[in-house]
């Protein structure tokens, strides 16, 4: 009997959250929501092992889908469906870093995550690799999201971004 009740509760939760979660993901996540809702989006490898690539050179100075200007100093990830500002703990080869979702992608190599050059450097990633990810929270999506504290204070005081 307990298993049947548990199954019914899971089905009800899936039905109740399904359309809202899909609609939220379709907006790019810039108008609120929660990391918990994002982690239940079908097809999103929010927690677990997945392939990651890295990006940056050639894109520096351009804006991410979430509104940040990409520089070498920016530390974050791209994901096709998670809302901007979702905080993701990424682990590779014994190193771990918590970074925000800043962009959409990746769109090649069968990868689920695209690390910025800053995130790849922090993890020691130089090629396409398998990482472990966990959704750990949500940060406000601002133009300085993903910048190290020193670069972030320079940018907010009117100085130029590093890179």
Gist of the model:
By secondary structure, the chain is α/β, with parallel strands linked by helices.
Explain this structure to me?
The protein has helices at residues 2-26, 35-39, 117-123, 149-156, and strands spanning 48-55, 77-78, 86-92, 95-103, 113-116, 129-138. Strands 1-5-2-4-3-6 form a 6-stranded mixed barrel. The chain has one domain: RlpA-like domain (Barwin-like endoglucanases). The model is unreliable at 1-44 and 156-163 (pLDDT under 50). The longest helix has 25 residues, at 2-26. It is an alpha/beta fold. The protein is 28% helix and 25% strand.
Features:
single chain; Barwin-like endoglucanases; 163 residues; 6-stranded mixed beta barrel; disordered C terminus; 4 helices
Termini separation: 60 Å
Percent strand: 15-25%
Low-confidence stretches: 1-44, 156-163
Count the domains.
Answer: 1
CATH superfamily: RlpA-like domain
Residue share in helix: 25-40%
Rg over C-alpha atoms, rounded to the nearest angstrom: 17 Å
Using the 3D structure, state the CATH architecture: Beta Barrel
Series of H and E elements: HHEEEEEHEH
Number of helices: 4
Q: How is the largest sheet built, in terms of strand order?
A: 1-5-2-4-3-6
Quote the CATH topology: Barwin-like endoglucanases
